[in-house]
């Protein structure tokens, strides 16, 4: 075989080597692209998995908080129901036992809370608070509440002022009735009657103020304090009036 005959074989060999090198380069490039795509997909999958785990943990915490809130709401509802059943003067026999809560399946999905800060979570507590306030007003109306402590020292002063005013009216009637006027004995009798009722004249005034202004009732202690102030003022007024006459 001559050199001329071997040239086509050498050229074909070079072409094959070049094609093999190009195929190897393409393979390496494709492998690099595939590796890069795999790394990106793995990183994205890891991120999605991490977010899914975070969502699962948040959902678990939210479920625990929701369960605790359900227990709190159930306890408060049971307490209010029992308090309403024990209320005196109310027709509570028709209430019966506490009704069971509505099943979750019967509640529209739009009404289900999405987070602990949702308005749907706060709504039951607000309703229970309003129900407790209404029950408290029904069982313990404003007119039956005791006076606040800060109002007790003011009762003797109020009783003394009203008694002094009644004593002044009585003194004026007695003085005016002692003159030579028509109906003098009647005026003097009214004056002495004013002196008689002066010590207790502050009690109805104190009761009215307590009911209208403080939404409370005047108990026996408040009546005693008001009478004490009225008696002291009436005694001083009587002594002063007797000294002048």
From TrEMBL:
Report which superkingdom the organism of origin falls in: Bacteria
Q: Does the keyword Transmembrane helix apply?
A: yes
The keyword Membrane belongs to this UniProt entry's keyword annotation: yes
Keyword terms, alphabetized: Membrane, Transmembrane, Transmembrane helix
Membrane-spanning segments: 154-177, 189-210, 222-243
The protein's name: Uncharacterized protein
Which source organism does the UniProt entry give?
A: Paractinoplanes atraurantiacus
Q: What is the lineage of its organism?
A: Bacteria, Bacillati, Actinomycetota, Actinomycetes, Micromonosporales
